[in-house]
Amino acid sequence: MDELDRTILTALACDARISWKDLAAGAGVSSPTIRDRVKRLQDTGVIQSFAVELSPAALGYALEAVVRFRPLPGKRHVLEQQIQDTSRIVQCDKITGEDGFVARMLLKDIGELDPLLETFGRTATTNTSIVKSSPVRMRLPPF
């Protein structure tokens, strides 16, 4: 990865809809060069996708919770499937240690929390924290 690749990735991270022309102008190269570089970055797996970032608040989700799930004995696979099937869980990591999963869950209000957590009562114990703010959202890895 060279400086041109880093310039392209930084620009695309700020605006994935930037035109080839504007991207090329910002990088100081031609549009065909940019297209070839972006294609290579995709082919090598550096760029995995171009996505839309939605605002949970604008969609009516006022709260976000971080939920740690500790699977009950013999329930790890069932719990994992249940987490995958729960649309309010928007991100989840399988982790080491006593807790098997850490997930981020969207809530319209605090009254939704207990009913959502109760659905996991047969597969896990939970520990929940409400997110106050996110000083660091998902950001680009260093390159």
Walk me through this protein's architecture.
By secondary structure, the chain is an alpha+beta fold. It folds into two domains: 3-43, Arc Repressor Mutant, subunit A (Orthogonal Bundle), CATH 1.10.10.10; 57-130, Lrp/AsnC effector binding domain/regulation of amino acid metabolism (RAM) domain (Alpha-Beta Plaits, 2-Layer Sandwich). It has five helices and four strands, in the order αααβαββαβ. The protein has a four-stranded antiparallel sheet with strand order 2-3-1-4, with helices on one face. The termini are close together.
Number of helices: 5
**Cα-based radius of gyration, to the nearest Å:** 20 Å
Strand content: 15-25%
Helix fraction by DSSP (H/I, runs of at least 4): 25-40%
Q: What's the CATH topology name of the largest domain? A: Alpha-Beta Plaits
Specify the CATH homologous superfamily of the largest domain. Lrp/AsnC effector binding domain/regulation of amino acid metabolism (RAM) domain
Structural class assignment: alpha+beta
CATH class of the largest domain: Alpha Beta
Q: What order do the helices and strands follow?
A: HHHEHEEHE
Shape, per Cα inertia axes: elongated
Strand order of the largest sheet: 2-3-1-4
Low-pLDDT sequence parts: none
How far apart the termini lie comes to 8 Å
**How does the major sheet shape up?**
4 strands, antiparallel
* Oligomeric composition of the shown chains: single chain
Return the average pLDDT rounded to an integer.
95
How does CATH name the architecture of the largest domain?
2-Layer Sandwich
Q: How many domain regions?
A: 2
- Tally of DSSP β-strands: 4
